[in-house]
Amino acid sequence: MIVGATTRQAQAERDPVIRASVPMLARVLPWVGHPPTRNRGTVGGSIANADPSAEIPLVAVTLGADILLATTDGPTSMPADDFFIGPMLTTIGQGECVSAIRFPVWPHQRIGVGFFEISARRSDFAFVAAAAQVALDDAGRCLEVALGVGGVGDRPLRLDVSSLVGTELDATSVAAAVNAAAGELDATSDLHASAAYRRRVASVLCIRALEQARVDASAKSREGAR
Amino acid sequence: MKVDLRINGAVRSADIEPRKTLLDALRENFLLNGTHAGCEHGVCGACTVLVDGEPVRSCLMFAVQADGYEITTIEGLAPAPGELSVIQDAFCETHGLQCGYCTPGMILSAHALLQHTVTPTRDDIVEAISGNICRCTGYGQIIEAVEFAADRLRKANTPRPHHGADKPVVEAK
Predict the structure, then answer these.
(1) pTM for this structure?
(2) What order of strands is seen across the sheet that includes strand A66-71?
(3) CATH for the A2-102 domain, from 3.10.25.10, 3.30.465.10, 3.40.50.170, 1.10.10.60
């Protein structure tokens, strides 16, 4: 699904098509800034700004979105994971401009999302954010899973928890997969939180986000109530 | 650059530098000093105004970008000179302000909320004013003021046309 770069965050937040097609994006939008900033702020603006703790870049990296660029040589695109290279830094060059973001739409019926973040005050910059999206089959087994963290390192990071595919996302499997993936996270220390704190909180929030996503997906009937 | 702005229901024209913020234009060109300049980089919410009824930070918007939109500042809320709007009055009654610096932004954020939502929960109110920083009153009385204003507005039974997200008022007698 392609979301134009100048789509207002407030508009995307209320959009039923985004809610149905890219539920993780719909889920994080209320956490982006505050109501007055979402009324003017855009989806593409947050992508181009590349704040390491921003929610929209986190969704783009976690789901494996493509960033569409307008350049002097014509349109091009690049995976979100290659687009963000550091704090407020992207690979965008001179004469290039973010034109849209292409978010993958999962084909499954039962999709659930989970999201948690820790910040100093409501809607302030997250020290750690974790986003999860899972798809379940009729028997409650995991068909597909995506997990990512923001605010931990100098850019959003996707965690490989593909070992969870085929499990019922039980607590033991989730904890094992998250701890294996989050153990090697490249976390940063700053005024707000130490690297050790960030790593520890990232594991906890990832486990909670996956559980929330599983519950969310389980609540959807097999006819697909989305 | 000549700009025609619709501010508080009247068309106002001025010759404005293209990169002058809406905040500076409101204060310097139109002498609407009720819109306060706080951090001037989108963090504190003191400069909040309504653009087509929705709260935005006037320090993060150029005056020329506001062309064609309906701008509402704190000066535009009172029904008549010397009077207060229901929300302004509620802030006075519940001591929802001390120094008053954040107050115009708080009231405009609250105004937008109460336009969409007839019966806001405490969480709705906290979310609506989450982008407005207060450094003296404390948020308790401000939240109380918005709850009080919501109650009065429900009892006044005036139609509020926005979004259509809410049920019609039934408890007002």
Answers:
(1) 0.90
(2) A2-4, A97-102, A66-71, A74-79
(3) 3.30.465.10
